């Protein structure tokens, strides 16, 4: 009798400890305070191809965490954007940043997805069973913004957020919703170039946001006005966060009415 009970308890313990994380469980609310650090402590892992920014205790998380793949601007490395990438990680995302300073083709960004797919399946990895491989976004700055558009053609990518993207990309191949960001005073990637991508994205829900007062390097270092809207976008698209929906959708969307942050906002007819 005791032996049978002991074996049953062992089986129950094993079932509990090996149960998969839930992809559909809710992430902690941040009350709409997208620009503040999120509820997760963070960690960084520097690899040969990609640098990972992620919730430090992810191995003990009951959730599967969405992925953001990142591309750097020309000549830059993830360290330049460290504060923004850590900010996203603090909100529960796994960020895979390509180490390459020439990211336009998106090769390292796709490799980041491949690597996380393998690590999610590896029982010895802290990411085992914790990666939401069905919730992947792509983002990047300048040349890396163009790379985010390129990677948006990958069927594994659900949404893109190019920041001041360079011109060498074709948005016609992108499959999911897009939020294209420009800087009002950007003299390297002029707002008109970003608007051209937006105008061409008539086959998907697309938004254009021009950050008031921003130049081409505002997002580097302290991401300032870029932190809150990018976080809200990914929490909406990859976490189904209901608090983020009115930031972008509806007749009185937050970015549509906030003229202190935005010098120009546009949404096409496919946006709800």
TrEMBL record:
InterPro entries: AB_hydrolase_fold (IPR029058), PET_hydrolase/cutinase-like (IPR041127). The keyword Nuclease does not apply. Residues 51-240 form the PET hydrolase/cutinase-like domain. GO terms for cellular component: periplasmic space. It catalyses: a butanoate ester + H2O = an aliphatic alcohol + butanoate + H(+); (ethylene terephthalate)(n) + H2O = (ethylene terephthalate)(n-1) + 4-[(2-hydroxyethoxy)carbonyl]benzoate + H(+). It is found in: Periplasm. It is an enzyme of class 3 (hydrolase). It comes from the Bacteria. Pfam families: PETase (PF12740). Residues 1-23 form the signal peptide. Keywords: Periplasm, Signal. Gene3D superfamilies: alpha/beta hydrolase. Its EC number is 3.1.1.101. This is poly(ethylene terephthalate) hydrolase. The lineage of its organism: Bacteria, Bacillati, Actinomycetota, Actinomycetes, Streptosporangiales.
